[in-house]
């Protein structure tokens, strides 16, 4: 468990394995887990029926991340996070609160495997509509202009990827956290 708040922000195209990594990482670190898909589905089920959520899911996640970090909890944010605007907004939360930030881009370098995952997924949230392979390929994706940890799920299994990410969290927090 981490004792100091750290913000870990996942990004990656649908189907690369973000949730498969982010959810158990949050449990391993004792951190709050914020998933944009969950927030957006809740907004759709609200009396306002906000669907599509546009930026509302991300804006809610930034506020929830800030609340949890202020309360001394680490946060693992799980989202596609495809553009600089959303990435910068998460980074601004960490900067404003002066907490360590680890940005993790999850990729699947094997296109056939990525397609198999996308086409084989089943929704895990009520009312969730999963993107098709064509949707994933057509989605806007801005390249990263800054350093981040890249995890290739075509080359690294879940357990090893989690070890790499947890070690990176510990490095961002300094020598006292090396035992996490």
Helix content range? 40-55%
Amount of beta strand: 5-15%
Report how far the terminal alpha carbons are from each other: 6 Å
Task: Kindly report the spatial arrangement of strands forming the biggest sheet.
Answer: 2-3-1-4-5
Radius of gyration using CA atoms only: 16 Å
Helical segment count: 7
Oligomer: single chain
Which blocks of ≥5 consecutive residues have pLDDT under 50? none
Broad structural category: alpha/beta
Overall 3D shape: globular
What does the model show?
With about 180 residues, this protein is α/β, with parallel strands linked by helices. It is built from seven helices and five strands; from the N terminus they run βαβααβαβααβα. It has helices at about 20-30, 35-45, 55-70, 85-95, 110-120, 135-140, 160-175, and strands spanning about 5-10, 30-35, 75-80, 100-105, 150. Strands 2-3-1-4-5 form a five-stranded parallel β-sheet, sandwiched between helices. It is globular, with a radius of gyration of 16 Å. The chain starts with 6 loop residues before the first strand and ends in a 7-residue tail after the last helix. The model has no long low-confidence stretch (mean pLDDT about 90).
């Amino acid at each position: 468990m981490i004792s100091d708040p750290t913000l870990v922000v996942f990004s990656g195209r649908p189907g690369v394995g973000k949730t498969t990594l982010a959810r158990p990482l949050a449990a391993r670190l004792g951190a709050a887990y914020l998933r944009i898909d969950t927030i957006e589905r809740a907004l759709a089920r609200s009396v306002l029926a906000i669907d599509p959520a546009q930026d509302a899911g991300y804006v809610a996640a930034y506020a929830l991340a800030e609340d949890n970090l202020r309360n001394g909890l680490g946060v693992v944010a799980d989202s596609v996070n495809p553009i600089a605007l959303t990435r910068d907004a998460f980074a601004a939360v960490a900067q404003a609160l002066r907490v360590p930030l680890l940005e993790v881009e999850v990729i699947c370098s094997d296109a056939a495997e990525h397609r198999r995952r996308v086409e084989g997924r089943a929704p895990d949230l009520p009312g969730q509509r999963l993107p098709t392979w064509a949707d994933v390929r057509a989605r806007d994706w801005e390249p990263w202009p800054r350093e981040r940890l890249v995890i290739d799920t075509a080359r690294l299994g879940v357990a090893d990827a989690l070890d790499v990410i947890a070690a990176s969290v510990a490095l961002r927090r300094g020598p006292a956290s090396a035992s996490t």
